[in-house]
Amino acid sequence: MNLRTTQLNITSQILSQIQRHSYTLSQHYRDISSGVNITRPSENINNYNKILYHNTESKRISSTIDNIHTLNNTLDYIVNSLLDINNVLLRASQIASTGSDITLDQSTIRALADEIDVMINNILNISNRKMYDNYLFSGAALNITPFVISSYDINGRINNITYMGSTNNSNAFISDDIIIPLYYTGNVFLQNNGKNIFQSLIDLRNALLADLPQRSSLLGSAMQDIELARDHITGVIGSISSHLSGLRSYSEQLDKLLYDHQVMQSELQSTDYADAIVRMNQSQYLLQASMAIIARYYSFSFLDYIT
Amino acid sequence: MFDYLQIGLSGITVANQSIYINGQNITKSDMPQYHRKTARLSTLPNDNGVIYSYTHRETEDILQKLYYNNLSDFSFYDELYNYHSLLESYLTIGDYVAKFNDIYNVLSQLTGSRYRINDLISNMHDLVMSIRSTSDALDTLKINIEHQITSYVEQINNYLTNLTRLDHNLLDNRDQILEHLSNIMNTNLVQTNKGINILSDNGLPLILDNTVYQLKIQYNNNNNINLVNDIGTIDVDSGRLGSLIYMYNQYIPKIKNEINYLVSDFIRNINQIQATGLGIAGEYESVDSRIAVPDVFAPLATQDLPLEIFEGDITISITDINSSTRNNYTFHINPNIHSLYDISNFLSSLPGISASVNTSTGLISISALPGYKFDFAGRDTIPATNTPVANPDTSGLLSALGINGIFDGYNADTINLRQQFIDNPNLFAFSKTGEIGNNDNIIRLLDVFKSSLFTQNNFIQSMSKIITDIGNFGTTVTNSKNYSKEIYNDTYTKLNEIIGVDTNEEFINLLKFQKMLEASSKYISIVNQTIDTLLNMF
Q1: What does the alpha-carbon distance between residue B47 and residue B49 come to, in Å, rounded to a whole number?
Q2: I want to staple B200 with a disulfide (CB 3.0 to 4.6 A). Which of A139, B234, B360, B467 is the partner?
Q3: What is the per-residue burial (b if ≥16 Cβ within 10 Å, else e) of A111-132?
Q4: Closest CA in chain A for residue B107
Q5: From the CA of A184, how many Å to the nearest CA of chain B?
Q6: Among B279, B282, B316, residue whose Cα is nearest residue B398
Q7: CA distance B498 to chain A (A)
Q8: Using one digit for the tens of pLDDT, what is the confidence trace for A236-291?
Q9: Cα–Cα distances in Å, from B106 out to A258, B88, B114, B124?
């Protein structure tokens, strides 16, 4: 069959080419001007899903790192508070040792007892410390003052301190697999023999104020309690410090992981400028060529040769 | 001898007519569906010259039919591509994932400190706005598509009417109309002695013996669009109209259902955990349901509620404030048996609370009597009997009725963040005990992001699945559009190569007929001179 080259065909083919090159060119313009090469799922569904995945993971990891930093501050403060208490207890232990000297006069003994009273108040203040408006040692009852003076003796000295906080720790979420205690209950101050630190100090003070025959044995018992309290506090400090150390090391790992996710996301999503510019130039040349062809086609015809 | 003059005259006449047809070809060379014409000549009786016999119109019926089919296919995918691109632009589903992540992250940070509570509210609000705007966008897209379908149906009816009015000589016009028609929907042309017949893809007549059966839009019970005429239901699954009907009846509802399913599950999980926890505001003095039960006396399973109620137990804890005692009461719910009224009766039978059902609104209200409060957290009794309830609502009743939820509504169209939570963040039930630092309920909320309480879905993964489906469909449509365009272009080119006008060929023919005219004139002139010579001999 004698097939014809028709004007309609030529026009429609060149028009189709021009449309295609213009569209490609506009895509390259968009990629270059926005810096992003995927904006819709259908453009590249595999990469789009990967971008979402990396984005989700990056956000999760950032959040976990933020959580760790926030918790670190609180746990550091708790450790510092417990170290303060430990220092006080160390001094109390020294006082107990000093107080067992039977040659001390009554005024010195009384001064030592007064110092223990100051320590009791000191530890009461420390144990009622707050961070971000939350009590450190009230467990889940963050808004309730954990330790309150419940009775005084006839001389106006503290005779009993009661725990008012929760029986449950306040747990913090770090990640799907890690939930740790953040705000501890008053059990932190409860040593192995069932006494709390306050009671041990009150007993020490009372032992100092006791008459000589019993003082030595009472002081001996009080010293043992203080040592138990110190051991307990040291144990709690060790436990929290190990949490802190673990979290810091975890946070460092997460920093690296976060960087990797961000890099992978950027590789998938960001425009490769060198590639995009070369392709844009290529599209421009193709578009110009298509336009040149249509211009050339219409610039002459068989009529030009008919005279 | 005078016959010789007749021969010359016939040459001039035929050359004239041929030049006229040439002119038609040249001037209409850019007209779509113009079929090249050729003058067909024959010899006059007794070899007395040439005569114009008829005008031949170039046709290629099989290719023509194929061209219409391919045009319909390409138009289908082209329209689908256009509207799917619009849909992808409207759907900011990637934002959903980001907002789910934001909520998850803020919740996790709230376990360390409550200072980001306002961020939680704003992220939840953003998520609600995003969901609602997506839902609205899909509805708007459907309305626009419906208008476009109406417009296409009107165009089809006009084309059909015009086809029956065409003179049988105006075949190019007929083919032009058929081309327009094929762009909207595929049809089959059957020419009979009685006139033109146009049939739909499923064989129903649109034109039968020159009688037009006009298309009409009909809606079925699912609000789907059907095209009908007086003969029956017309299947349209090609052309731009076919594409729009597919988008309207199937694709957009499918996407919307998937989003609704996900949003509904999300709302339900959050509301269920909220309802079975405690905020620092403590136990409740009164709560109301937010999802209406049409017939409060009928079994709940028969009420076609948007969220299913399962057979299970619900435990309510009632606290006597004066005596500081708390008791737990459990009610077994069988939705096939129990009505809202039965539940109300059970609650009213308990000491310290009363419940009532409003038969006109279908809602239940639960109130504590003076000196009492209640909750659904499932805590141990006071004094303790070591009988806390791990899951105080295994029936899902609380979230199904919208009792004490954070969100109102039950799908993407109706979701709303309840104003009372924006006004008073202390109402967020972050704990199971009511203690400010108890994070058990936040951890339950975080868990549902991994696995829904009701469907075991992972919200992020489910969202990614919807995105993947949309992306894959978009890729398929783009590829199909490009592929069908290639085929369409190819058929168009082939058809034009046969029926179209090559202007160079026409110019050469023009020269040919010009020469024929000149030669015939010269011939007449020579015959005339010969006759003159012969006459002068006398």
Answers
A1: 6
A2: B234
A3: ebbebbbebbebbbebbbbebe
A4: A173
A5: 10
A6: B316
A7: 6
A8: 999 999 989 999 999 999 999 999 999 999 999 888 888 889 999 999 999 998 88
A9: 18, 28, 10, 10
Of B56, B172, B50, nearest to B513 by C-alpha is B50
pLDDT of the residue at B121: 92
From CA B285, how far away is CA A259, in angstroms rounded? 50
A92 vs A112: CA distance, rounded Å: 9
Residue B255, Cβ density class (10 Å: 0-12 exposed, 13-18 middle, ≥19 buried)? buried
Question: Residue B294 class from Cβ within 10 Å (0-12 exposed, 13-18 middle, 19+ buried)?
Answer: exposed
| pLDDT tens digits, B457-504 | 888 888 888 888 999 999 999 999 999 999 999 999 999 999 999 888
Please provide residue B320's backbone torsions phi and psi, each rounded to the nearest 5 degrees: -90, 110
DSSP A2: -
Interface confidence, given as ipTM, is 0.80
pLDDT digits (tens, 9 = 90+) for B177-231: 999 999 999 999 888 877 789 999 889 999 998 899 999 999 999 999 999 999 9
Give how far Cα A154 sits from Cα of A116, A118, A151, A215, B465, Å. Answer: 17, 17, 10, 20, 74
Q: What is the token pair recorded at A1?
A: 């069959």
Distance (Å) from the alpha carbon of B30 to chain A's nearest alpha carbon = 6
CA distance B531 to A262: 102
Cα separation of A132 and A139, whole Å? 14
Q: Which two tokens stand for residue A145?
A: 């003052």
Q: Is the dihedral of CA B51, B57, B58, B61 positive or negative?
A: negative
Of A119, A169, A167, A127, the C-alpha closest to A147 is A127
Q: Which of B87, B97, B109, B510 to mutate to test the interface with A (most CBs of A within 10 A)?
A: B109
Question: What are B412-442's pLDDT values in tens digits?
Answer: 999 999 999 999 888 899 999 989 899 999 9
Q: Which two tokens stand for residue B381?
A: 């009794």
Cβ pair B437, A140 in contact under 8 A: yes
Amino acid identity at A290: S
pLDDT at B402 over 90: yes
CA–CA gap between residue A112 and residue B84 (Å, rounded): 85
The type of residue at B397 is L
**8 A C-beta contact, residue B71 and residue B488:** yes
**Alpha-carbon span B352 to B330, nearest angstrom:** 15
What are the structure tokens assigned to B111, written together? 């376990």
What's the pLDDT tens digit per position in B437-456?
A: 999 999 999 998 888 888 88
User: What residues in B contact A143, CB-CB < 8 Å?
Assistant: 280, 436
Query: A294: exposed, middle or buried (C-beta count within 10 Å: 0-12, 13-18, 19+)?
Result: middle
Q: In this structure, are residues B419 and B128 in contact, taking their beta carbons and an 8 Å threshold?
A: no
Residues B515 and B391: their CA atoms lie apart, in Å, by 102
The amino acid occupying position B165 is: R
Q: Which amino acid is at A201?
A: L
The beta strands (E) that lie in B253-321 are given as 286-288, 312-320
Please tell me whether residue B455 adopts helix, strand or coil conformation.
coil
Contacts of B116 (CB under 8 A, 6+ apart): B106, B109, B110
Q: Which residue from A minimizes the CA distance to B501?
A: A6
* Contact assignment for B475 to A42 by CB distance below 8 Å: yes
